Known about the structure:
Elements: E1 6-8, E2 11-13, E3 17-19, H1 29-37, E4 42-45, H2 51-65, E5 70-75, H3 81-90, E6 95-99, H4 105-113, E7 117-121, H5 124-133, E8 137-141, E9 147-148, H6 155-165, E10 170-173, H7 179-187, E11 192-195, H8 209-217, E12 223-227, E13 233-237, H9 240-246, H10 269-278, E14 286-287, H11 303-316
Parallel strand pairs: 3-11, 4-5, 5-6, 6-7, 7-8, 8-10, 10-11
Antiparallel strand pairs: 1-2, 9-13, 12-13, 13-14
Helix pairs in contact: 1-2, 2-3, 3-4, 5-6, 7-11
The chain binds flavin mononucleotide.
Amino acid sequence: MSLPKLKIDTLTAQLPIIQGGMAVRISTGALAGAVAKTGAIGIIGASGMAFDELRKEIQIARERAAGGIVGINIMFAARDFIGVVQTAIKEKIDLIITGAGFSRDIFKYGQDGNTPIVSIVSTARLAETAQRLGASAIVVEGKEAGGHLGTDRSVWDIFPEVKKAVSLPVIAAGGIINGAEMCKALKLGADGVQMATRFVLAEECAAAPEYKHRYQTATKDDVVIISSPVGMPGRAIKTAFVEKILANQAPRPIGCDFCLKKCSLKYCIIQALINSQKGDIDHGVVFSGEYVWKIKDRSIKPAAKIVTEILQEAKEAGC
Ligand SMILES: Cc1cc2nc3c(=O)[nH]c(=O)nc-3n(C[C@H](O)[C@H](O)[C@H](O)COP(=O)(O)O)c2cc1C
């Protein structure tokens, strides 16, 4: 089987791989641009970014992408969701991927700005709704994913249901950690895969060395589910702060700026993500997919090398 190109609306990516958006500031313009240059799709994690910062990151990604496809990911749960969408469309972003809740309004903005909207869903019903409202593609995300989770079901169970329910391109996400898993998804009829955890160990990933080190040392038992004040569970690697969350002893937020539409205020997830991105992982949450420990070579290398390795693994698996 030769690898298919990934077509979303009028865009054609040479490789059927989307590097999943990662907030806060884990996938910035540098990583998205480096991935886009390889022929895959690079995504900036825009949640938690100010509008000016997002503009700058989109420019950085563009400069590095050499004409490749660059998008943003924004959580519906973010209070300034629509402002981020409008900023990205004004900057002529190639596509917008949205998850962690469902917005009907975004499709209108996408149509007005001629920008494809890709919905992350975890059920066939939501995939159908997204298609009806005007989505250009669907990302089906299973419980194996990193970050906030919309389901406790495996991507391998949900994917066939979604594929049957819609006629749009369907992209599988969650726990697809190597080319063999990508090949498996493509053989099941996926039009592409979204991979995030694998790209954290890229040189261009903006996470601090301490954060990446946690990825390099994590064992199977270190990967846990926490409850997030957003109102969804999240998947993360154990840190001192994560242990506190698990024990219900995480400190309450100080100086909250109400950045989320809804927040339980149990602790500040955004500050915890900012802390870990900067290297203070003892006071932070390190989001990760379920299978971080399965990455064969956990050394830090250029994103282009990671893509080459994924393609080689896929080839060995018969793709
Ligand atoms: C560190 C990290 C941060 C993430 N942040 C976001 C985010 O801001 N928005 C989102 O929709 N998904 C987010 N995700 C989910 C990924 O985009 C992706 O769909 C998922 O992790 C895929 O599974 P994998 O990591 O096993 O490849 C995040 C994942 C990780 C690992």
